[in-house]
Amino acid sequence: MPSIQIRDIRKSFGDIEAVRGIDLTVEKGTVLGLLGPNGAGKTTLIRMLTTLMKIDSGEAWVEGLNVDTEAQAVREIIGLAGQYAAVDENLTGRENLIMVGRLYHMPMKEAQLRAADLLGHFDLTDAADRTLKTYSGGMRRRLDLAASLVNNPPVLFLDEPTTGLDPQSRIALWKIIRELVAQGTTVLLTTQYLDEADFLADRIVVIDHGKVIASGTPQELKTELGDEVLEVRIRDISRINEATAALRSIGESQSVHVDFGTQTISMTLDQGVGSLPKAIRALDVAHVEIEDLTVRRPTLDEIFLKLTGHGVRV
């Protein structure tokens, strides 16, 4: 049985259809990355699956439990870390985790031991008895994730867990998430960071306007939905417009991006690497000197733009 199963789930707010018939399956011990721009329906879906919001129609199960009719049982076996730290800044890190344990009806001694264990695992032991007012953003996010694990949940929902963090803190959280999955935890992760989904997810589902528009492994999405990308760095920035016109003239995709800072032109190739000789010939005819030229697979960011027609942060 999958850890999470969703069948034709829907949610509306007045005339606005936030979730419009989504079907999903998340296998045990895997990470599903749920991608989409702001307003795509990601957080609404998470709130329904974690029993924080009623489902209008459709059905969902977590570890075989019906989210609608067995909500209390579902809450006992899941963990949730939202976009903003759900911890009390007037309490210490240790007190926050003990409080969560007590809310799960743990005996005080068990809650204290669990808090100490998690503080150690998340490298927060030295700050355990400091109030959260003194914590950095990265420390708060680590404590928030620790709080979602107090009850040892087999299923963890992470709603944009690294929003606002610096790169070092994001990487630290990625490492922790991977360790949890290696131990058998199932994770449903929403994110706007495509590199995050690429790094963490076994499968990715892209949603827009409340509907699934693509799904697959990161590599499958890159292979099936993305053409190769030609990147050309020219020597003379004053020739950038001529170089761009020359590349457009080969009759390939009109998806061309110019980065003036790096003097690089990026262009998707409809015919893959077979178009490379034509591109080189066109630049030569235009007498544009090339500093560097590469062909690569598209990034997930570029694929998202191709699928939705807009960037991921909108």
Task: Describe it.
The protein is an alpha/beta fold. The mean pLDDT is 88. Strand 12 (256-259) and strand 13 (264-269) form a beta hairpin. Helix 3 crosses helix 4 and helix 8 (218-225) packs across helix 11 (300-308). It has two domains: 4-222, P-loop containing nucleotide triphosphate hydrolases (Rossmann fold, 3-Layer(aba) Sandwich), CATH 3.40.50.300; 227-296, Alpha-Beta Plaits (2-Layer Sandwich), CATH 3.30.70.260. Strands 6-7-8-3-9-10 form a six-stranded mixed sheet, with helices on both faces. It has a four-stranded antiparallel sheet with strand order 2-1-4-5, covered by helices on one side. It has helices at residues 42-49, 71-77, 93-103, 108-121, 137-147, 167-182, 194-200, 218-225, 240-248, 276-285, 300-308; strands at 4-13, 16-26, 31-35, 57-62, 65-66, 78-81, 155-159, 186-191, 203-208, 211-216, 228-234, 256-259, 264-269, 290-296. The chain contains eleven helices and 14 strands.
Ordered list of secondary-structure elements with their pairings:
Elements: E1 4-13, E2 16-26, E3 31-35, H1 42-49, E4 57-62, E5 65-66, H2 71-77, E6 78-81, H3 93-103, H4 108-121, H5 137-147, E7 155-159, H6 167-182, E8 186-191, H7 194-200, E9 203-208, E10 211-216, H8 218-225, E11 228-234, H9 240-248, E12 256-259, E13 264-269, H10 276-285, E14 290-296, H11 300-308
Parallel strand pairs: 3-8, 3-9, 6-7, 7-8
Antiparallel strand pairs: 1-2, 1-4, 4-5, 9-10, 11-13, 11-14, 12-13
Helix pairs in contact: 3-4, 8-11
